[in-house]
């Protein structure tokens, strides 16, 4: 590898036929050298001894493929078809070309700083087959502490994870997995797999891919893994940031008043009403409700409209070009039927321009002149028809008009009445321009139909090559329908768990509702959780069993410390502060550095962070999406902790007063709080602990 890097970095060897070619070749060689350099310290992590056509050979598996052109020291990339054999249980394979092969041995090689530290056989034909080494390597890795970023699991992909990650390219995939099953990491590795040249026509360009994460804290935390997987320039953002960027409203404040109500209001009737309204706003039928509304709006705007212009053509008399109202209405009907990616306004412009060229029949050299002469009157006409239709105003106009809601015939009287209620009236709104997260899919639908939806490449709108959705149980069916329009067919990977959704008021009731929006989508289930010790996993299972309708999740048999419980009598003068400080101290004494105190609400995190300083405990509060998790001791609400993992976690106020035992949503919150820890978990309460964790 070093010899190859030296060759690439030697500009004198990168010579072309002329100076320009030499510069290009030299720049390319330097780029290759930069890509290979990080892998010199750990060139491979596994090996396969295989027998092909009667001959045995050893293949090395690494994070970066390397071909030794002058010798035998080549490395196969983990994301290649051959690399997959390292992770699977299969003992034979038939390549697309060549002879069938048989696996004789799988071996894990731990290398650090160019030194071989450990060899573990995972399978050895001569030693009776499966050695149990795969589980040994996994347990060793799981014993490691958490970091301030998501784990790279290339070296320890388990067979079921590998199978889900390599689901056929060009097919939408929904990966269902419990907390700690590795679904998010697998989604990232699938994205890297999609960029491999082996994917052929389904290969994705990293710069044309997008990953949507539930909040910016998690987006920052997760994005660090992508460069380690060899892919740069992937957009990692939140659905809200992507939506406001597409709408051109980056400064718009996005609220989630439904979540605020669910976290603060004790009135179950009001909470249920808010939940049902939010679910209806994200219903896939709303796409056709919006389409019908826009059809009626644009047809009404076309009444009495006409386009008339005299066009100058070289060597001919000036030619009149006129479109009457009936002509325009027919064109609008064709545009709606074609449903162009770039939206109806651009589609209408192109239809009129095509009609003008068809009627006037200019020479190829004159076409640009004709279109230029039509620019002003055409822009004026489109402005009269489309200009007043902005996503925010039009979505709200639709919701405020019973006639518009009824026009499609898709909503019942009861549903239309529900959309006219305001269960969130007691939740304050920002003073500046804002939109609620439950309104955004409707606004995006207006944008999709009027101005288009997808990826902007300069001024060109195109579909994404591949999109990965994290916490997919929190995306509405309407948003899935819109993302389906914005992405190549079959190129969405959704990662989630219906049983731990904290934002079920936005999400689907079942994966079947998602499959209806992503035709042909396959559901892959990860049946094992890898994050936590047996003690923590068992506690989480006890909570989840009260609402989890899925099959029981199997944990890794990794023993650890017993779950710690800290309680004080009701009315204690300092409340739970001394208990939290004691728990932090004992977690640190146990050797943990990445520690989280998880609260139910953001205001609790702010309040406790300030108060704990008097108990010699300095925890960094993370209470908004602008904060970044950089490791150490943090205190954050459960809605921002979701998706993160810590070496140790402390659940504050783990009692029935904070997490209402009678409400399924509250039990889900408690489950998320208690499932953040890898190795050490503490439960703190003034008064009795919650019955499910006592």
From TrEMBL:
Residues 156-533 form the UvrD-like helicase ATP-binding domain. The keyword Coiled coil does not apply. Signal peptide: none annotated. PROSITE patterns: UVRD_HELICASE_ATP_BIND. One of its GO terms (biological process) is recombinational repair. One of its GO terms (molecular function) is DNA binding. GO terms for cellular component: cytosol. Keywords: ATP-binding, Helicase, Hydrolase, Nucleotide-binding. It holds the Pfam family UvrD_C_2. ATP binds at residues 177-184. InterPro entries: DNA_helicase_UvrD/REP, P-loop_NTPase, UvrD-like_ATP-bd, UvrD-like_helicase_C. PANTHER family: DNA HELICASE IV, UVRD / RECB / PCRA DNA HELICASE FAMILY MEMBER. This is DNA helicase UvrD. It comes from Deinococcus arboris. The lineage of its organism: Bacteria, Thermotogati, Deinococcota, Deinococci, Deinococcales.
């Amino acid at each position: 590898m070093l010899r190859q890097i030296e060759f690439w970095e030697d500009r004198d060897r990168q010579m072309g036929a002329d100076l320009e070619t030499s510069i290009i070749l030299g720049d390319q060689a330097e780029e290759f050298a930069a890509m290979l350099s990080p892998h010199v310290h750990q060139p491979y992590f596994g090996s396969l001894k295989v027998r092909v056509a009667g001959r045995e050979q050893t293949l090395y598996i690494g994070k970066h493929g390397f071909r030794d052109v002058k010798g035998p020291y080549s490395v196969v990339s983990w994301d290649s078809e051959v690399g997959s054999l390292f992770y699977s249980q299969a003992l034979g394979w038939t390549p697309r070309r060549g002879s069938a092969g048989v696996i004789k041995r799988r071996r894990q090689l731990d290398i650090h700083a160019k030194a071989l530290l450990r060899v573990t056989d995972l399978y050895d034909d001569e030693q009776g087959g499966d050695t149990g080494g795969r589980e040994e390597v996994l347990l060793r890795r799981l014993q490691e502490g958490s970091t301030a970023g998501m784990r790279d699991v290339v070296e320890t992909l388990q067979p079921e994870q590998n199978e889900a990650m390599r689901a056929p390219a060009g097919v939408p995939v929904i990966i269902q997995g419990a907390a700690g099953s590795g679904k998010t990491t697998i989604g990232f590795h699938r994205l890297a797999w999609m960029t491999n040249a082996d994917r052929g026509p389904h290969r994705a360009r990293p710069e044309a891919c997008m990953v949507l994460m539930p909040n910016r804290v998690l987006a920052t935390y997760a994005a660090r893994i992508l460069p380690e997987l060899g892919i740069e320039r992937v957009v990692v953002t939140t659905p809200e940031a992507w939506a406001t960027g597409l709408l051109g409203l980056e400064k718009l404040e996005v609220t989630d008043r439904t979540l605020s109500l669910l976290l603060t209001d004790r009135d179950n009737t009001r909470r249920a009403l808010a939940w049902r309204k939010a679910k209806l706003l994200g219903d896939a039928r709303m796409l056709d409700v919006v389409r019908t509304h826009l059809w009626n709006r644009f047809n009404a705007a076309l009444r009495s409209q006409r386009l008339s212009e005299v066009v100058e053509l070289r060597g001919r008399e000036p030619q009149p070009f006129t479109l009457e109202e009936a002509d325009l209405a027919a064109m609008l009907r064709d545009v709606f039927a074609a449903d162009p990616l770039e939206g109806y306004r651009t589609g209408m412009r192109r239809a009129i321009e095509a009609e003008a060229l068809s009627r006037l029949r200019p020479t190829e050299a004159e076409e640009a002149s004709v279109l230029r002469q039509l620019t002003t009157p055409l822009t004026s006409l489109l402005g009269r028809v489309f200009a007043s239709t902005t996503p925010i105003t039009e979505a709200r106009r639709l919701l405020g008009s019973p006639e518009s809601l009824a026009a499609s015939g898709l909503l019942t009287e009861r549903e239309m009445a529900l959309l006219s209620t305001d269960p969130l009236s007691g939740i304050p709104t920002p003073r500046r321009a804002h939109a609620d997260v439950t309104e955004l899919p409707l606004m995006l639908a207006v944008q999709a139909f009027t101005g288009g939806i997808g990826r902007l490449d300069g001024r060109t709108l195109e579909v994404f090559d591949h999109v990965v959705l994290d916490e997919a149980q929190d995306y509405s069916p309407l948003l899935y329908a819109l993302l389906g329009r914005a992405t190549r067919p079959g190129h969405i990977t959704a990662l989630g768990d219906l049983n731990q959704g904290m934002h079920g008021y936005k999400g689907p009731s079942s994966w079947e509702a998602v499959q209806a929006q992503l035709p042909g989508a396959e559901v892959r289930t990860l049946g094992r959780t890898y994050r936590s010790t047996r003690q923590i996993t068992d506690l989480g299972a006890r909570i989840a069993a009260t609402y989890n309708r899925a099959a029981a999740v199997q944990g890794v048999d990794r023993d650890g410390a017993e779950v710690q419980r800290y309680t004080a009598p009701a009315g204690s003068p300092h409340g739970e502060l001394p208990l939290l400080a004691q728990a932090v101290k004992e977690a640190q004494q146990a050797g943990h550095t990445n520690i989280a105190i998880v609260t139910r609400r953001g205001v609790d995190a702010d309040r406790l962070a300030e108060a704990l300083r008097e108990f010699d405990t300095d925890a960094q509060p993370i209470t908004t999406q602008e904060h970044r998790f950089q490791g150490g001791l943090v205190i954050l609400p459960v809605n921002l902790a979701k998706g993160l993992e810590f070496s140790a976690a402390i659940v504050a106020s783990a009692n029935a007063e904070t997490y209402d035992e009678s409400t399924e949503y509250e039990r889900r919150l408690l489950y998320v709080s208690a499932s953040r820890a890898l190795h050490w978990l503490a439960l703190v309460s003034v008064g009795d602990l919650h019955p499910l964790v006592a």
